Amino acid sequence: MIDIGLDTEMMFEDFGDKATWVPSAGGPAKPGLVILDEPDALFFNDMLHSPDPVIHYPASQWAGLDEGEVLMVEVCRSIRRYRLTKPPEAIDDGAVMKASVRKL
Known about the structure:
This protein is mainly β. It has one helix at 8-15; strands at 17-21, 30-37, 54-58, 70-75, 78-84, 89-91, 96-103.
């Protein structure tokens, strides 16, 4: 979980991954930073599954980002695509948003 007590901008600059959102409704690409939380997937004869990956991003960064939109996230010098599986939610004071995603 993210400690919102930290300076939000500094937190994303220090720990964030570069990301880009190209709105499905059209318009220019919107760069930003996300913190990607990909829990370890544990499987035991298909009986135990990890929860969905989650992204965190500054609330002011992507107005209009919603369920179904696709983000491109740069992780370890490779580009990964993720689709939001739920609408983003504000965390605590609303400075940071959280959204469940699925890797494409």
